[in-house]
Amino acid sequence: MKTYKIASIPADGIGPEVIAAGLQALEALARRDGGFQFDVTEFDWSSDRYKKTGALMPEDGPEQLKAYDAIFFGAVGAPDVPDHVTLWGLRLPICQGFDQYANVRPTKILPGIQSPLAGVGPGDLDWVIVRENSEGEYSGHGGRAHKGLPEEVGTEVAIFTRVGVTRIMRYAFRLAQSRPRKLLTVVTKSNAQRHGMVMWDEIAAEVSKEFPDVTWDKMLVDAMTVRMVKNPQGLDTIVATNLHADILSDLAGALAGSLGVAPTGNIDPERRFPSMFEPIHGSAFDITGKGIANPVATFWTAAQMLDHLGEPAAAERLMRAVEKVCADGVLTPDVGGSATTQQVTDAVIDAIRGEN
Ligand code: NAI
Ligand code: MG
């Protein structure tokens, strides 16, 4: 029997609610399969810890995580702690420290879930957004001078390296190649930003030669928002910078019905470090503690984690169960239903058990 060591970091807001749901589904899958099990360690790293000790995680936090096969992450952010403190205190040090340079964000309209786009249903929108996750606009390069004075300056420098762009481009082309349509859209803003973004375009053209069977095209990020809304059927795999893909994938989640169904994997494709799996959404203060957080994004990211661990059959089983439960109308309020987090979770577990 294989044992996967999972580090669970539920953190803030609805994070603990959806991670609890995700762990129940993973347990059910392990029991159903019989060939693997999970050894889960929970870490209390969070904004609460920050308020008590001054740090979201211990100094050797990343070091502790190295012993795990994967990280299962909830959400970080609290109303009374600045967002840049929470993000840079927990999530980004893990992503960057473990060189999880490929942020992979699948989006599709699940059966039973209504897209806000008129006439668009399951099958019309089936994308994977690949977000560069190690550099670009979120490299942390910049500073402030003359703080508080009228002549204050703030810089936020986007860093693009040939190594960084080439590896994400290769990852995206390979992913596009593995999907039935073999279609990749490369997003930049290389008209207005004429250095790093032009380099993206050039490297895309170079890497494309390694993948002659992949059809690819280029889009400017502003025009891309229009295309996503007007012609969702025309897109499949998408690659973009850290900032652009961050924004586009929130739009993608909304177009697929709710942020509550959108998952993401922060992947180290070279497997030197554990990869981290999380729902895209944040801590959702407005619904924390009400028991109505949508667990579907967390189930979906659990499926991504299973795939990464080498359990594709269990990943598929989980997604089939989620799709069945959505199609049956067992939905949380964000997607038009009245079910609780636990009711959706129980239905998914039933579907996992009932499958042959
Ligand atoms: P958010 O994603 O927490 O919430 C946006 C809206 O979507 C809210 O109305 C919320 O109720 C709804 N929503 C989100 N997830 C849902 C779910 N599973 N089920 C049902 N409804 C759901 O984004 P917001 O409000 O901008 O940020 C709140 C906090 O979360 C901030 O502190 C922010 O920094 C943090 N955040 C953390 C992220 C992370 O840990 N990766 C990502 C995004 C935000
Ligand atoms: Mg975001």
Automatic annotation (TrEMBL):
- UniProt keyword annotations, A-Z: Manganese, Metal-binding, NAD, Oxidoreductase
GO MF annotation list: D-malate dehydrogenase (decarboxylating) (NAD+) activity; magnesium ion binding; NAD binding; tartrate decarboxylase activity; tartrate dehydrogenase activity
Enzyme Commission number(s): 1.1.1.83, 1.1.1.93, 4.1.1.73
On the tree of life, the source organism's domain of life is Bacteria
Coiled-coil spans are none
Residues forming the Isopropylmalate dehydrogenase-like domain are: 5-348
Q: Kindly give the Pfam families that the UniProt entry links to this protein.
A: Iso_dh
Annotated metabolic or biological route of this protein: Carbohydrate acid metabolism; tartrate degradation; D-glycerate from L-tartrate: step 1/1; Carbohydrate acid metabolism; tartrate degradation; 2-hydroxy-3-oxosuccinate from meso-tartrate: step 1/1; Carbohydrate acid metabolism; tartrate degradation; 2-hydroxy-3-oxosuccinate from L-tartrate: step 1/1
User: What cofactor is this protein dependent on?
Assistant: Mn(2+); K(+); Mg(2+)
Q: Which reaction does it catalyse?
A: (2R,3R)-tartrate + H(+) = (R)-glycerate + CO2; tartrate + NAD(+) = 2-hydroxy-3-oxosuccinate + NADH + H(+); (R)-malate + NAD(+) = pyruvate + CO2 + NADH; (2R,3R)-tartrate + NAD(+) = 2-hydroxy-3-oxosuccinate + NADH + H(+)
Q: In the UniProt record, does the keyword Hydrolase occur? A: no
Q: What does this protein do?
A: Has multiple catalytic activities. Apart from catalyzing the oxidation of (+)-tartrate to oxaloglycolate, also converts meso-tartrate to D-glycerate and catalyzes the oxidative decarboxylation of D-malate to pyruvate.
Q: Give the family, as the similarity comment puts it.
A: Belongs to the isocitrate and isopropylmalate dehydrogenases family.
Protein name as it appears in the record = D-malate dehydrogenase [decarboxylating]
Instruction: State the species of origin.
Output: Paracoccus halophilus
